Amino acid sequence: MRKLLYVSLIVILFSNLTFAQQVQKSVFSTSRWKDKNWLLFDDNQSALYKIITSEAFQLLGERSGRIAKLDSKDSWEKYQEETRLRMRLSIDKFEKTALNPQITGTLDRETFTVEKILFESHPGFFVTSSLFIPKNRQTPAPAIIYCAGHTDTGFRSEVYQRVILNLVEKGFVVFAFDPIGQGERLQYFDAESGKSKIGAPTTEHSYAGIQTLLTGTSLTDYFIWDAIRAIDFLETRKEVDIKRLGVTGRSGGGLQSALLMAYDDRIYAAAPECYITNFKRLLQSIGPQDAEQNPYNFIKNGFDIPDFLHLHAPKPALIITTTHDFFSIQGARETFSEVKKSYNALGYANNIDMVEDLGIHESTKANREALYEFFLKHLYQLGESTEKEIEPFSTEELWVTKTGQVSTALNGETVFSLNKKFFEQDNKQKSISKASVANFLKIELIRKLTASVYTGLINYDGKKVEKYFLENEFEDFALPVYLIKKDTEVNPKKLIVWLQPEGKEKVLDDLLMDKILELGYAILAPDLPGIGELHDPGFRGDGFVNGVPFNYTFGANLAGRSIPGIQAESIGLLMQFIEQDEQYNKLQISALVDKEMSSAFLHYAMIENSFNKIVFRNPLVFNNTFLSTEYYDPSQAFNIAPGSLPDYDFRNMVSLLAPEIFRIVNSIDENTETYENNILEYLK
To answer: Of 263, 274, 262, 291, whose CA–CA distance to 163 is shortest?
Structure first.
């Protein structure tokens, strides 16, 4: 028993020491056993998301103020006209070209036939689809475009076929097509494994979507254009009454339905399912979703999800929801309440409706039957809304191509190749200035340092590490900082700001640290938003690629911001810390900027630069070749500002710095000391 007790005490003591060391490195440690962090900063790791959402909420609040002033038919019609023009600008770059439709096969059942259709929404950009035609129908018949949600099989999923086949049984022509990155349209198909090289549909969307976002457009535009061209195809079919055209879809298909009802006036009746909410409730709950759900600068440009319905008004619309959907039903209710105002003002209050059923993010029978009833009524089709059990087709039966994938059957264009073409056509980089870069990203050094809070000292292998967090007047987060000195150093002669993409703790383990301290420097190392103690390990989203959280990028884009821009503003707090310290504000200040932190640093330097020497170590050098690389590095893309590539890149910004104050040092082999010696020689 004594031995057991002795061993237990050792284990507890060792655990306590380990715990103490881990806690000690945090600038928020209180050195208290149970409450290891300052209570008010328990959620400080959410800093990046809080910055993004606070700016988005401010913009949404301004929009709500504008909406509240619309009180007449004339004011709503003017709002529709202005919003329609601005929203549709994003697809002006596309041109309607030959669809070149092909029927690659047919299926026959007792009450309907299916034509397998291949068409080109852009030259060589193939869309796989199926046209379901009831044998007993009106001539011409009402038609419904069905948009599939996020499934690997596209519209072939059994839950989607249930709706499609029931609509066909009720006399509707139904046209269903594969969204980008789904079904037979994988953008990164691996013929060897038979799967995507990138991941599930949302991952494919986000990976392709980032490249479009960096050029100032979005994957949303490509989704919209596919759907618009689907309507163009239906106009060629004698079976279809184009004046009685509807659209529906669930989840990601609900988004596509909402987009199409706003972007194309030929849609008469629309019923998006399990998508409609508003951005306030979306950002409060699950956050920004994958790429196509985040049009370029959407919130910044004054838009919100209700605008999809406002632009469709006063034509019939049905919002279909479930009580426990992850798309907030509260947001759906608020949207419904707002949209009723435009329908009332335009004189068609009965044309907007909403149904909700008990359920999660799912299709319920009650909601499906409400959908059937809606289309029967508004597309003037006789029939019963009762749902029938109809045997679905197998996935392979509905293949449009011989191989089940466009990439192997036809070797056509992809979003990557199209984006590259559009970018190259428009890529005439402008002459830039520091002011133009700062203005583009809306970078403002408006955060004022209100306190530098000292929280303790770490004795780390002969070094003194002073811990601080920096408060600002917005009180939304505190910036963690290490001030590192030699243990014997009383008055350092120089100061270097060290930006590390993995955070300030990584600096402690860098072989260069001791050598830089030997040169007489003190080191100031922060955690910028999204990094170190400002990194949120619990943040989740459907836009993660290889662990890189593009959901942050999508959220920042919505508000017209960027990750490097937000981090650049935080560097401003760090510099105020130096300015307010009498020991350091008179010293020469240098900067060591590692890897992709070069983007945030340069964006800060476009506004303010008080550095005597700057070293970029293995910097992110983004340029046009970035977009010519199909399989790019996600971590690099994360640190590029949306929309920036047509206007400026790393080389442009570096050219605005005095050439004598910076060095760019790249390591070829991590085991060689050549590049380290180059850094140290320059910093002497």
So the answer is: 274
The answer as to whether 309 is a domain residue is yes
CATH number of the CATH domain containing 362: 3.40.50.1820
The residue out of 398, 426, 454 marking a domain boundary is 426
483 Cβ contact partners less than 8 Å away, ≥ 6 residues apart: 465, 466, 468, 522, 523, 524
Domain boundary (371, 402, 426) is at: 426
Give the full edge-to-edge strand order of the sheet including 494-499: 449-460, 463-472, 478-486, 521-526, 494-499, 588-594, 613-617, 662-665
Tell me if 45 is assigned to some domain: no
In a domain, 132, yes or no: yes
Is the distance from CB of 177 to CB of 115 less than 8 angstroms?
A: no
Show the domain range for 146: 70-382+390-426
Determine the 3-state secondary structure of 374 from DSSP: helix
Window from 15-19, 71-75, 460-464 with minimum mean pLDDT? 15-19
How many Å is the Cα radius of gyration of the chain?
Answer: 29
Contacts of 23 (CB under 8 A, 6+ apart): 29, 31, 36
pLDDT digits (tens, 9 = 90+) for 539-558: 999 999 999 999 999 999 99
CA distance to 88, 94, 220, 274, 624, per residue, from 205 (Å): 21, 19, 10, 19, 21
Over residues 590-640, the pLDDT tens digits come to 999 999 999 999 999 999 998 999 999 999 887 667 788 999 999 999 999
Check if the beta carbon of residue 247 is closer than 8 Å to that of residue 267.
yes
> Are 414 and 525 members of one domain?
no
Q: Of 597, 614, 572, 574, nearest to 481 (Cα)? A: 574
Residues 498 and 405 placed together within one structural domain of the fold: no
- Report the alpha-carbon distance of residue 304 to residue 335 in Å, rounded: 9
Q: How many residues does the chain have?
A: 684
Residues 279, 327 within the same domain: yes
Q: Residues 411-468: pLDDT tens digits?
A: 899 999 999 988 876 555 567 888 888 888 888 899 999 999 999 999 888 899 999 9
pTM metric for this prediction: 0.93
